[in-house]
């Protein structure tokens, strides 16, 4: 994929892709939603090139899943690893120390990030050309400003 196409796709991904949640608990607190978008904006090109969602979006998904049902032990460890990484002060306050993931847990996290990214891309495709038109308008505006 050429540089321009990667940039256009990253822009569309960053601005339009949905935040994927467990359907049993679709509510995401505003603060988490805003941070998820900020992390996505900062890492959009990397996410598109690697076809993975951000780790923070994995954290948001696991948060909603954990509100629906208890997480299995390996997912609990992944969730707490991410929580300690992105909310270190809050984690220290409740006695959660940084957790080193096993190779298996790292693969689980990477697989979850790929799965979330695929769901996001499917949602963009379902939205049709409307998202692409919005993104193209932004790209055209940026080119005019040069």
Count of the domains: 1
Rg value:
17 Å
Q: Which structural class matches the secondary elements?
A: mainly alpha
Calculate the mean pLDDT score and round it. Answer: 88
- Share in β-strands: under 5%
Number of helices: 7
| Total beta-strand segments | 0
Unreliable segments (pLDDT under 50, ≥5 consecutive)?
A: 131-138
Distance between the termini: 23 Å
Largest sheet: none
Coarse morphology:
globular
Portion of residues in helices?
Answer: over 70%
Q: Can you lay out the helices and strands and say which pair or pack?
A:
Blueprint: H1 3-16, H2 30-50, H3 55-68, H4 73-86, H5 88-93, H6 103-126, H7 129-145
Report on this structure.
- The chain is mainly α.
- It has one domain.
- It has helices at residues 3-16, 30-50, 55-68, 73-86, 88-93, 103-126, 129-145.
- Helix 3 packs across helix 6 and helix 4 crosses helix 6.
- It starts with a helix and ends with a helix.
- The relative contact order is 0.16.
Index terms:
7 helices; 146 residues; single chain
Summarize this entry quickly.
This protein is mainly α. Helix content is 75%, strand content 0%.
């Amino acid at each position: 994929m050429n540089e321009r196409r990667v940039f256009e796709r990253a822009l569309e991904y960053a601005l339009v892709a949905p935040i994927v949640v467990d359907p049993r608990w679709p509510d995401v607190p505003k603060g988490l939603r805003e941070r998820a978008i900020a992390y996505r904006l900062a890492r959009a090109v990397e996410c598109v090139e690697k076809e993975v969602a951000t780790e923070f979006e994995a954290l948001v998904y696991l948060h909603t899943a954990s509100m629906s049902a208890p997480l299995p032990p390996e997912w609990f460890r992944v969730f707490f690893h991410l929580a300690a990484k992105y909310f270190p002060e809050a984690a220290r306050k409740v006695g959660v120390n940084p957790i080193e993931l096993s190779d298996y847990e790292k693969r689980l996290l990477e697989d979850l990030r790929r799965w979330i990214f695929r769901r996001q891309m499917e949602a963009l495709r379902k939205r049709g050309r409307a998202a692409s038109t919005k993104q193209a308008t932004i790209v055209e505006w940026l080119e005019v400003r040069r």
